[in-house]
Known about the structure:
The complex is a heterotetramer of chains A (about 170), B (about 700), C (about 100) and D (about 500).
Chain A: H1 4-26, H2 30-50, H3 54-78, H4 91-114, H5 116-119, H6 130-138, H7 146-167
Chain B: H1 2-22, H2 28-55, E1 71-82, E2 85-93, H3 95-118, H4 130-148, H5 153-171, H6 178-213, H7 223-226, H8 242-253, E3 259-260, E4 263-264, H9 265-280, H10 289-292, H11 298-307, H12 312-319, H13 321-326, H14 328-349, H15 355-375, E5 382-384, E6 387-389, H16 393-423, H17 439-453, H18 459-474, H19 476-501, H20 520-535, H21 541-544, H22 559-562, H23 566-587, H24 593-600, H25 602-609, H26 614-660, H27 668-690
Antiparallel strand pairs in B: 1-2, 3-4, 5-6
Chain C: H1 5-25, H2 29-54, H3 60-90
Helix pairs in contact in C: 1-2, 2-3
Amino acid sequence: MESLGSIISYVVIALAIVICSILAVTTRKILRAATYLLFALFATAAVYFKLDYEFLGGVQIAVYAGGIVVLVVFAILLTPHPGDNSERLASRSRRLGLLAGLAAFAAGAYSLVTRCELLAKAPEMSNPDMDTIGTALLGTGNGQYLLPFEAVSVLLLACIIGGVVVARKR
Amino acid sequence: METSAILILAIPLLMFLFLGLAGKYLPHKWAGILGTCGMGVTMVLAYTVAFEYFFSGNSFFINEAGDRLQHVVFNHDWLNFYDKLTIRLGFLLDPISAMMLVVITTISFMVHLYSNGYMRDHHGVWETGFQRFYAFLSLFSFSMLGLVVATNIFQMYIFWELVGASSYLLIGFYYTKPSAVSASKKAFIVTRFADLGFLIGILVLSFYVGLYSEGNITDAFTFTSLTSVPVDGLTDTFSVSEGTAQVIRDLFQNSAAPMFMGASVLTWALVLIFMGGMGKSAMMPLHIWLPDAMEGPTPVSALIHAATMVVAGVYLVARLFPLYLMAPAALDIITVVGAITALYAAMVACAQIDIKRVLAFSTISQIAFMMVSLGVTRLDHSVALGHEVHEGLGYMASMFHLFTHAMFKALLFLGAGALIHAIGSNDYTAMHGLRKYMPITHITFLIGCLAIAGIIPFAGFFSKDEILTACFGHSTVWAIWMAVVAGLTAFYMFRLYFLIFWWKEHKVHDEHHAPHDQPWTMTLPLVILAVVSIFAGFVPFGSLVTWNGHPITGSGFLTNLENLNWSVAALSLIIAIVGIMVAMKMYKKENELPAKMRNALPRLWDWCHHRFYWDELYMFITHRIIFGLVCRPIAWFDRHIIDGTMDAFAAVTNKVSYAIRGFQSGNVHMYVWCYLAGAVLLAVITMICVL
Amino acid sequence: MELNALYYLIPSLIMFACGVYGFITRRNMIAMLISLELMLNSVDMNFVVFNRFLFPNQMEGMFFTLFAIAIAAAETALAIAIVVNVYRANNDIDVRDICKMKF
Amino acid sequence: MLFDNILIYFVLIPMLMLAGVALCRNIKQIRAVAVVGSTALIALSVYLVADFLKAPVETAVDGMYHYSSWKWFTAQGLNINLTVGVDGVSVAMLLLSSIILFTGSFASWTIAQPKAFFLWLILLSIGVFGFFITIDLFAMFMFYEVALIPMYLLIGVWGSGNKNYSAMKLTLMLMGGSAFLMLGLIGIYYHSSADGHYTWNLLEIARNNAISTGWQYFLFPMTFVGFGVLGAMFPFHTWSPDGHASAPTAVSMLHAGVLMKLGGYGCFRVAMYLMPEAANDLAWIFLILTGISVVYGAFSACVQTDLKYINAYSSVSHCGLVLFAILMLNTTAMTGAVMQMLSHGLMTALFFALIGMIYGRTHTRDITKMGGMMKIMPYLAVCYVIAGMASLGLPGLSGFVAEMTIFVGSFQQGMADYLAGGGSLRLVFTIIACCSIVITAVYILRVVGKLLFGPVQDKHHLELTDATWWERLSTATLIVCVAAIGCFPNFFEHLIRGTFNPELFRAIAMNF
C-alpha cells in the first residue's frame, strides 16, 4: 500500500506528463511548445527519481532538459518569427493526426491491457549506487558496457564534428 | 661422340639466337657467311657421326651378327608427367636417324650457300630481312635435326611443332605480300589440325603402354620401349628387354586387348599418329598447304617443302614401323592414302603453269611413293614377278627413295630458283627455250628430271625400282597403279623441262639483260647436287638402312645393280621412257598438240588445273561452315544471349528501382504514414499469431 | 492502491500518442523534433519502468535509457544543425518545402 | 612475432610502397618507388622459391611452409586468425604476381594522374599477395575483396571506351560471385568442426574433415562458382571481354595475369581441398561448363576484330583449361593447371602490354584498320609473334608445357575413368579440349596475319615509332619468363607437384 504522499506525487507527475505532452503538440506558438516539452521532460525525470533511479534522473535533467531543450530553443531563436502563431491546421490533417495518435494509443493500450496481470507487480525499490553504475559502465564483462560507452563517445565526437561542419558558414 | 651430337643440335640453335638477336647489327654479307659456315660445321659433324655409326664397327652400333643397333647418345629429363611418362630430350642414333642427319645437313648447307646468291637481286642488293632469313633457316635446321634424332615420341612431337613454326615463318618471309601471309597461315593451321591427331595418338599409345607395363617400362614414350617388338620368327636387334616386348605384344595382339569401334586401340593410335604424318607430308586430303607454301623463297621450298620437312611424315611412320607391322589395317590405310595421293598429285602436276607448283605436286606424289612403299611392307614371304622379295624391302626402298628424292628434288628446286631469279617470274610461259642462255642450269635440271623419272643409272631409278618391287610383292593392283604414276611422273617432269628449255626460242630484247647463269654460290650447289643425283643410286642402302638393322644386301658399290629385279626394272624403265617420249612429242617444239589435248578433254584439264577444287572445298568448310556457322553464331550468342542475360539482370534491377523510387519522395509525413502502416501491420500480425 | 507498472506506462503511452500526433500534424521542423523527443522520452520511460518492475535486479533498462539519452542528445544536435542549415538555404523550415534531396 | 615470418613482407612491402607513393611529389619519384618496390618483391619471391626448394620437409605443416598463425579477432565465437603459409603453388603464384607487378609498372610509365593510379594499383597488389600467402578463409576472403574493389576505380577512371559500363559490369559480376563465395565460406566455417570449435583455418578444416556430404553438395558449388566467376567460367565470363577492353594496360595485365588466377587458385585451394566428396561427385557439372569454356572462348575469339576482345576470349579459353584441369582431380593434370596459370599469366600480360603499346600509338584496336605493323614497329611486332606462339603452344615457350601436362594428365584420368566403367565424360571432354589447340592457332595467326603482316593499311601509321626503353624492358622481362618456363619445365613442375600429393589432397586420393 502506497503512502498518500506517494500517491499525490504520482498524480501530480502523471498529470504533468499528460498535460504538458498534449500542450506541447497542440500549441501554435513554437517557443511555448519547447517550454511544455521541458516540463514533460522534468516530469519524466521525476518519474525516474520516484522509481529510485537517481542517477538517471540527474542525467535526464542535465542532458535532456538542460541540453536538448536549450538547443531547441536556440534553434527556434535562430529561425523565423519565434513568437508567431503557426498557421492553423487543416481539419483534415488534424483528424488524420488524431487518428494516428489514437491508433498508437490503442495499440499500446491493447498490449498493456492484455498483459495486466504480468504488470501488476509491486516494485522493489533499490537505488543502484554510483559504484555499481560506474563499474558497469566501464567494465567489459557480461552485463557491462564499455563497448557501447566507447561507441557513444565516438558518436558524440562525430556529432560535434558533424554539427560544426553542417552548421558553419561557408 | 657425345660432344659432336650436342654440337650438331647446338650450333644451329645458337646461330638462330645470335642471328635473330644480333643480326640487325651485322652486315648482310657477314650474316650470310656466318650462317653458312655454321651449317658447314654442322654438316661435317653430322658426316663424322654418321660415318662412325655406319662404318666404325663399334659395338654400340653393330653387334657380332652384323646387325645395326639403336644407340642413345644422351637423354636428359625435360618434363616429368608421372612415373611412367617423362619427356626426355636426347639423341638417338640408328640407321634412319644417321641417314637423315646426312640428308638434312647436306641439303641445308647447300641451301645456305645458295641463298647467299639467291637472296640478292641482279645489282647485288640484299633482300630486306636477309639476316632474319638466315636465322630462320638455322632455326629450321635445329628443329629438323632435333626431330630426326628424337629418342621418344614426345620429343619428336616437340620438334615436329617447332619445324611447323619455322616453316610458317619461312613461308611468310615476304610478309608484306598477302598471298604469302595467307599461305603461311594455311600451312600452319592445316598441319596443326593434323597434329591434333598425332597428339591424341601419342596420348592413346603412351597411356596403354604405360598402363599395361606394370613396371617393365619406365617411360612409355620412348621409341626403344615402343618399337621393341619381336615379331614371330625374326630376330629383332632393337629390342631392349623381353619383358617389355611381351607387354606390348599382349597389349596389341591379345584377344583381350582393348577395342574401340571394331579396331584395336593400337590401330586407332597408329592411324591417328599417321594423321600427323599426313599433315606434314601433305597426303590427301591434308595436302592443300604444300602448293601454297611455294610462296616462300625458293631455297626454302627446296629445303623444307621438298627435301626435309615434308618427309617427316614418312620418317614418323618408319620410326614407329615395328608397331605399324602389328596393325596391318593401319598399313593398308597408309597404302591407300599414299596411292591415291600419288596419282592425284601426278595428274595435277601435268596441268600447272607455275613451275614451283609443278615441283610441289611432284613432291607430294614422290612422298606418296614413299608412303606406299612403307604401306606395302609385310614380313611374310612374297614374290614379285618371279623373283623373291626380301622381307622388309619396302621399308628400305622407302628410306632409299627419301634419300635420293631429297637430293634430286632439292636440285630441281634450286634449279627452278635459278630460273626464277634470272627471269623474275614463276610461269614457264615467260621462260621457253632457255637452254642456250643458262647451260649449267639446263644440264643440272635435266639430270634432276632424269633422276626423278627413273632412268638408269640416275638415283631415282634404283629407289623407285625397289618401291615397285615391294609393291609387286604385296599386290599387283597397287604395283600397276604405282607404275602408271611413275609414267606420269616422267611425263610431267619432262613436260616441264621441255617447256622451260625448248618449246620455242627465247626472245631477247637486250643482250645485256639476257638471262644468264647465276653466280657461283648458286651454281655450285646445283653441280654438287647433280653429281650426287647421278651417283646416289649406288649407295648400298640394303646393307645400311633396314627396319630391324639386319642387312639384306651386300655392301659393295654395284650391289644395287646386282640385286635388281630385272623384270620390274624393265617395266619401270619402259614406262618412264614412254612418258618422256610423249612429253617430247608434245612439248619439244611449239605445236598444236597440247591445245588439242586440252580441248579434247576439257573437264579433265579443268579439274587438274584447279587441283580438283580442293582449295575451294576447304574454303567452303572453313569460311562458310567453321566461321559462318560456328564462330559467328557463338560470338553472337555470347554477346546477345549470355551477356544479354547478364545485362537483363541489371536492366530489371534498374527498372524496378525506377518504379519504386517514388517512395523516396522526401516527404517526411509520408514516411511517417508508411512507418505507422508498417507498425500497425506488424502489430496486427503479432496479434493474430498470439490469438 | 498500489502503484504498479501500469500506472507509469499509461502516462507514457499518452505521451507517445501525443508525439505521434504532433509528428504527423506539425509542419515546422522544430515542432516535429519536439514531438520526436516526446516519443523517445516515453520509450525511455518504458524501459526504466520495465526494468524496475519486471527485472529489479538488473540494470539493462536503465543503461539502455542512459545510452538512448546520449544518442538523443547527439541526434538532436545534428538535427538542429540541419534545421539551421535548411533555414539558411530555404529561408523556411517547413518540411513540405524540403524535398530537394529526394531520389 | 609477426615480422619473423618472411611471408608478411609480401604485404608489408606493398604497404610501404603505398606510403611511399603517397608521399611522392612528381612522376619520377612515383616511378622510382614502384620500380624499387616491385623489384624488391621479385627478389623476395625468388628468395622464397630458392628457400622453398631446399627447405626440409619436416618444417612444413601439412605441406605448408613458413606456417604461422596470429590471433586477430577471437571473441564472440568468431575465431578469426591471420594464418599464413605457402606451398609450391603459392610460391609460384607469388613469383608470377611480382613479375607482373614489375612489368605492369613499366607498362604504365606515362599514365595520367600517376599518383592515384599507382595507389590503387598497389592496393590491388596487396590484395593479390595477401590472398596467396594466407591459408585462412576469412583473411583470404578479405584480401580477395581488397583485390577486386580497386579494379572498379582503375577501369572507371583510367579506362578507355565504354569504361563506366565495363567497370560497373565487371565489379557487379565479380561481387555477385563473391556473394556466393561468402555464403559458401561462412557455411564452411559453421561446419568446420564436429565439436563446435569452428575454425577458418584451411588446414584445420581439412584435418577435421567434418563437413557432411550433404552440406558439401551445397557449399561446393557456392565456392566453386564464387571463385569460378573470377576464373571466367562459362557462363559467368562476360565481364572479361568488356572489362579487359576498357581497362588501362597495366590493369589488364594484372587482371588477366594475376587476378584471374585467384579464381583458379581459390577453386582448388578452398573448394576442392576442403570438400573432396563433393568435388568428386559434382565435378562433372563443372567439367562440362569449363570444357565448353575452352572451345567456346576459342571459337568466339576467331571472329572478333578488337585486339583486346580477341585476347579476352582467348583468356576465357585458357583459364577454362585451368579449371578444366583442376576438375580432373589428377596430380598431373592439376600440376598442368598451375603451369597453365603461370604460363597464361605471363603471356597474357605480355599480350595486353603489347596491345596497350600498339593502341597508344595507333589509337585503334580494330585489326581491320591496321596492318603491316612488322614494318612499322618491328620490336613490338616480334614480341607479339612470340606471345602468339606461346599462346598457341609452341614448344620452347610456356604454353606448350602447360597444355601438354594438362592433356596428358586429363587423358590419363579420362582413360582410367573409361576403363573403370566411370563413363567417358572426362575422355570426351579431354579430346574436345585438345581441339582448342587448332582453334587457338586459327585466331592467333589471323591476328598476326592481319595486324603484323600484310601491307600497311593506314598511311599515318608509317610515322609511328617503335618501343621505348621501358616498353622494351617490360616486354623482354615477360618473354624471358615465358621462355624460361618453356625451356625448363621440370623446375616448375617440381615446385608445383608437391601440392597435389594425394596424401595431402584428399580429393585426388579419393579419385583413384
